[in-house]
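SAMPLE LOG
Freezer: B-3
Tube label: C17
Construct: single chain, 447 aa
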Amino acid sequence: MGLRLKIGATITATAALAALVTGVQVPRLMEDRGRDQAMERLLVAERMYEQFGRPRFGLRIDPPNIPAELRREALAGRRATYVQVDGDSRQIWAATSVDGHVLALKQHEDPLSGELQTGMFMAGLIGTAVATLIGLLLATRLGRRLRLSARRAAQITGGDLDARLPDSGRDEIATLTRAVNTMAQALGDRLRAEREVTANIAHELRTPVAGLVAAAGLLPDGRAESMVKERVARMRDLMEDVLEVARLDNGGERADLRTAELGTLARRAVRAVEPSAGVRLDIVADAFVETDARRVERVLTNLVSNALRHGRTPVVVEVEHGVVRVRDRGDGFPPHLLAHGPRRFHTSAVGKGLGLGLTIADGQARVLGAGLSFTNPDDGGACAVLDLTASVRDDVREDMRDGVTQDAPGDGRAADRQGEKGHAADRPAQARDGGVPGGAQGGPAAD
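STRUCTURE (predicted):
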């Protein structure tokens, strides 16, 4: 049950309970007041009877229709009252005994009590309805403020460090809002400072790393030369990845949109992986997309590399219309990645990687306006899905059906794509050395 309904139901229940209590207590108070009036009349009439020897003020001696219970109380020497209900009328008796005779009188209940009870009942209904309406309006206003605050908090969680909760009012919600805004400001400042430091360090390392690369190229051939070149190349790639993450964080990246064939981009991405043995490309249904080809290849290359490094072969890259799926047969993505998405410098369960590969893929997907999701299928393994459905060029697809030639940017040729689907693109990419990297044999699929 939502907060609005809870508050409305609470106010309605409170108002109804108040009306019920009032409706029960007021008639009882009216009855007690009638009994007191009848007892006062009886006392006056009894003194007059004892003084003058005859009944006055409606006093009757041994009335035949007196209730039996009241008669017993009076003959026992006690003054008592009794309410007699006769249909819609209510009569109040008061009785006592003098010299073995029962002295009694009766009076009709105040006729206003019935009308008062009816009026109170109606007032209770109206009051309950009004309280319910006011409660729902109040709950709606509070719920709207809380929902807006929740959306802004989700924006902050998603990386929008400038989003703030609406700060208005002086109630407890406003106090909580100011506290959350202060926390978001502090976290944003800290994250920005950390990103600036990371980017500055990577930028400062660029020159010495370039020098190391040049120096490594001058070393004589041999095992030492190979090891130095490998380590230097890894350092250079890591530095470039950090700089790319910094550029994505700054929000200055813009996609260069052109029409490209998605199957061709997937094929290039697979071939760019070193080595790519154990990777199979399946083009179920190709499509032309309006996107940034370089960024799409970057995303797919990172996804395939991550699957080879942390998953198990075979790695399958499947293209179906505007969707590309990269799946491996490893142990699946770790829970923190499924729950929160890729996070930089967050190592996997086996301590491999710095979390930059998937972070870059996620950032580039956002620049493209594409969706990137990570799941662990029920039958095992890990699956990353790049969704470019919104970028599919339906008009180009119709031209393909009509046999019209299209130029795929970056392909360097014009070709009739009509008969290409599901043939050459479906063959597994060949690795240069025919091997699979050592990291491809186990561990959770997360960089």
